[in-house]
Predict the structure.
Amino acid sequence: MPLRKWLERAQALPGSPSAARVVVDVTDWLAAAGDVAAAGGQLLALWGANVPAAGDARVRAALVHESGLLVLELALPATDGLYPGLQSIYPAASRMQRAACDLSGITSDDPDQRPWLRHAAWPASEHPLCASVMGVEAAALTPDDYRFQSVEGEGVHELPVGPVHAGIIEPGHFRFSIVGEKVLRLEARLGYVHKGIERRFQELRLYEGHRLAARVSGDAAIAYSWAYCQALEGLERVQVPPRALWLRALCLELERIQNHLGDLGALGNDAGFAFGLAQFSRLKEELLRAVQLALGQRYLLDAVVPGGMAVDPGVAGIASLADCLHHIAGESLNLRNIYDEHAGVQDRFVGAGAVAPELARRLGLTGLCGRASGQEGDLRVDAPWPPYDALAPVKCVQRGGDVAARVSVRFDELQVSLQLALRVLEQMPAGAVRFAMPVPAAPAGELGIGLVEGWRGPVMLALEPDGNGGIARCHPHDPSWQNWPVLEHAILGNIVPDFPLINKSFNLSYSGQDL
Amino acid sequence: MLKTLRTIAAVGIVSEPPPEADLALRVREALPAKVREVLGRALAIRHVDAGSCNGCELEIHALNNPFYNIEGLGIRFVASPRHADLLLVTGPVSRHMALALRRTFDAMPDPKFVVALGDCGCTGGIFGENYASCGRVANVIPVDVVVPGCPPSPVQILQGILTAISTTPARGVAHGP
């Protein structure tokens, strides 16, 4: 059955203008997933739905197709049966299925049955999203036993790195199998910063959840809090004032600019060019100060709120922010020239950590990294939500797939986002920035979807109300889920000392995927 | 090369003076002033993210930018806890990180300071304590100085670090041995 037939059967969901759901049986589950793949689509997220009563477990898969998001929902048999995993169609499904097993107790037929997010903090028999009460016990200070895939052969040895890393970064464990300095295999183990976010959502009211959403991955706070509010405002049938939507877009582009500036400096530094870090970190600081002047805070973790925005820049703030953006646009062009002409930097960037477009497609590489490997997805263009339907940004795509390509995409997107932010500052409609939210009325059983292209890639948030103003279930999804496994391919055949550079060029979230 | 030099010359020096110590941030008085005086001259910091959302890390990075120029104050971030005098901890401590944090603390030579950073490090923040989170840093290792904020600004972080090594004892806190 072609994709069109599934879309005809699907019902539009509140929240994102491009999301729809179709409830399927076991046969259709695999058929629909295969049809979306045949039409060039990809798996975005897979998670266990809220369980209102025992024996009512459901698994959901969100699939991105060329014009939006199709959510498949499969009710699981009451007996403890396995559901068919999607790992043979979408390799990225594997870790999501393992996580759904850890948290919701639903098990796929994937041969890899190792835990993913669960270490020693709770036993395999417990499922935090099912248990009505799960105690707060003393800190588990015992390491657990995790079976890494081992590589054997003469001269092969293992190099364990982490969870605490040498720099100022998030924790995770990397197990390298190497011969000399050459990497034969890398296997990551994450879940170290799992702090029970999905369980915590269930303790919050619907109108409080945006604050937690912003802290799923603090470097993408706008993307997550916007996705949360989009889902919530859809569920409550609330229209947000136009100025608030434009302000959200401004903040989302500022978040992209800040992260790209930070990464471009760090990438220069990792290639031994400290000048790059000094200059880009200076520009980033100038921007943060201009943002504080215009919007009151350096990092806007609590700016996006249900019903609109908590901040509204004055005339002077807008003018100084615009000046700063113009200034960064000029300076970063000059710095790009310096990077491009620096033989030492280019020697490290070109060819390092390459992911060919065909491999990227098969593994589902997404977002910024995907666009550096010829995968052209960008929700702002493909499935625009207001005000991106009016802003119509251009996509920045490269096909090289190496560190140099990921640097290029950042330089290109930096310029595009600077121009977008300037346009928003110029053309933003006047008026209110926040409407009061009504008493929550969304009934239990509804599903709202928020879908936003954050700076790393697509951020999705699935929100289920409990019918009493509380949250029955909230699943946030970070694009890092898709991209972490691809990093393990990118490093193959490279040398260990290039790993920090390659890893930084992906700059994936630990907190966003550990939840 | 000429372009690089020209850019450096055009930008000039943007570094700003550091903030004063704020003794209200000090919650524990474990080390005598003499030790702090010695460590204050060249301080080595080991950072551990024990469960943070990565927001605090963005502002720790900013300490290294030319405006705050933390290395210019004789303070630098090091790769091993064995080289460190001060442990800078972010996040609520996830139960999966509790062991690694404890081991990092144990690996540091005495005398040593611990600074807990951000609302989560100070109180557990919005995450609190649950099946996967131990809450505030002080629930897992002893803490000398707390720096609230979500995230705290670079000036506030710098102030917390300088408070840890400042030689004035906090009011109402007993002197160390």
The first strand of chain A starts at residue 11 and ends at 12. Chain A has a mean pLDDT of 94.
